[in-house]
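This part of the workshop introduces the protein records we will be handling. An example says more than a description, so a record of this kind follows:
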Amino acid sequence: MYEGIRSPAVHMPKTMNDLVSASTRFPNATFWAGGTFIMSRHDYYPTRESNDIISLGEVPELKRINRTDRYLEIGSMVTFEQMLTVGKQVLPGLLQTTLEGTATKIIRKQMTIGGAICTPQSRLSLPGTLSALQAEIEVKTCLGQKTETRWIDINRLYDRHGTLQLKKNDLVTRIRLGFERENFSSFICAGNPMINPEETVMLSFACFYNQAVINRFRMCLTFPTTMFLIPHEIDMMMHGTMLPLSTQQIDRVVRSIMEGVFSSNEHEIPAIQLERARRFVESAMHELNAQSLSER
C-alpha cells in the first residue's frame, strides 16, 4: 500500500531478563507502553524509518503495585485507571486529582504511569504532580547482559525545559511515593497538552504544615514543550511561614515564580501561558489561605 515503507518489527519480552536482552539486541527500538501518545502523532506511521518496537505489556514485574510500611511502589506499566482503584486511603490526594483530571476513562485505561513520565517530546501533568510529592523513580540501565539499578529523584529526569534526560539504554521500572500526606494540595490545568501545548499550563502544588506553620512548600509549573519549573527557592523562602499568608507574601511568591518562568525560557512565551501561570499560582495561594482559615 505504501511503497518503500517498512513495518516495524515488534518484540514482546515476557520477563525482565528478556527485556534486557531485547533492549541490548535492538538498541534503537522504541519502548512501547500504552501507546496513547505515540499513536496520537500524525507522523508516527507510515514512515520510511520505522524503528523496531519493544512492547512492555507482557512483563509482569512492571504491572505490580506494592505497599510497604514506608512506601507505595507502582510499576511503570500500571495504567492511570488501575492506579485510581488503589483508593483514596492510600493514594495522595494530589495524585488522585491529577489522575482523575487526565483524559477520559477510556484513555486512562490505556495510559501508563511510565509512558506519561517518559514521553520525550512533551511533559504531561503527571511528572509535575510526582515532583510536588517528591517521588522517586527506579531506573534500570541495560549494560549488555547486565543491568544497573538506581533510585533517583524524579526532578533529575528533566532539565528546566522539560527535556527528558534518560539515555537510550535507560528504562523506568517503578515509582515510589512516601506515605506522608500533604495538608493542602492543588492541581490546576488549562488547555490540552496533546492538542494545543503552546497554550497549556499545568500547576501541581503540595503544602505540608503543622499548627499553621509551613514545613514544606512544593510546586511545579509545567508548559508541555518548553518548561518544567520547580522553584526550590520558594520552598526555602516559605519554610517556617505562618498561615494564612498576607497579600504581600502572596505577591512575593507570584513575582518570584514569574521571574523563574522568564529566566527559564530562551524564547518568547505566549501571553496566554504567562497569564494562566500567574493566575494559577495566585489562585492556589488563596485556596491555601481559605483552608487554613477554615481549620481555626
